[in-house]
Amino acid sequence: MTIREYKPGEHKAGFKGLRVVVKVGDDYRQKYFAFRGITNKKELNKIKKEAEALNAEWNMERQLIQSKKDLECKEHRRISSAYTTGVSGIKMKFARGKKVRAGVTKYYYSPLFIISGSTDGVRFDKNINISKHGFDMAWLKSVMFYAEKKGIANYTHLLERKPPVEQFIVIYKHQKSLGHDIPPHRIPKEIDEKLLEKI
Predict the structure, then answer these.
(1) Any long-range contacts for 156-165 (C-beta under 8 Å, 24+ apart)?
(2) How far is CA 12 from CA 8, 19, 50, 95, in A?
(3) Are residues 128 and 191 located together in one domain of the fold?
(4) Which domain of life is it from (predicted)?
(5) pLDDT by residue (tens digit) across 96-154?
(6) Which burial class, exposed, middle or buried, applies to 85 when counting CB atoms under 10 A from its CB (0-12, 13-18, 19+)?
(7) Residues 121 and 104 grouped into a single domain
């Protein structure tokens, strides 16, 4: 959106002058600057400068709002991508479980590969515990289960999409920021201890 100048005969209502139209966020803003009765070039230039100043102001506001939206979208994608792996039906995160012993409920967290999807309208899902199987074996089991449910005979290309185990550091920080009290020792043991020192 920008400035449009209406010359004689161009506007159906007979308007002569400038029209500033800018979409700011979800709102369309417009203002008319009429040339009626003005023949002095200096006065015309003054009106044009006012229109240009308003156009610049609204466009600056539009850019600020768009930049904020872009950052929010980028942050949303970053958070969403923390759980994703190289296979659309397999995600990775810390899942909370609970145990009841002697009437006392205790909660614990486990790093998992979470497999879910559907085949011919039939849903399937399964969790593979990384602490139990180790990162590499858990990935293999996850891909094998997903491939079996999807009828994929050759799944070598899926195995090659294994995410880096270090991604759990990003997931750990994100889930902690959401209020999950995940003990550091629940992070997969395959991650270098030097990286864990920075958490």
Answers:
(1) 158/86, 158/87, 160/86, 161/85, 161/86, 161/87, 162/85, 162/86, 162/136, 163/84, 163/85, 163/86, 163/92, 165/135, 165/190, 165/191
(2) 10, 14, 24, 65
(3) yes
(4) Bacteria
(5) 998 888 888 888 999 999 999 999 999 999 999 999 999 999 999 999 999 999 999 99
(6) buried
(7) yes
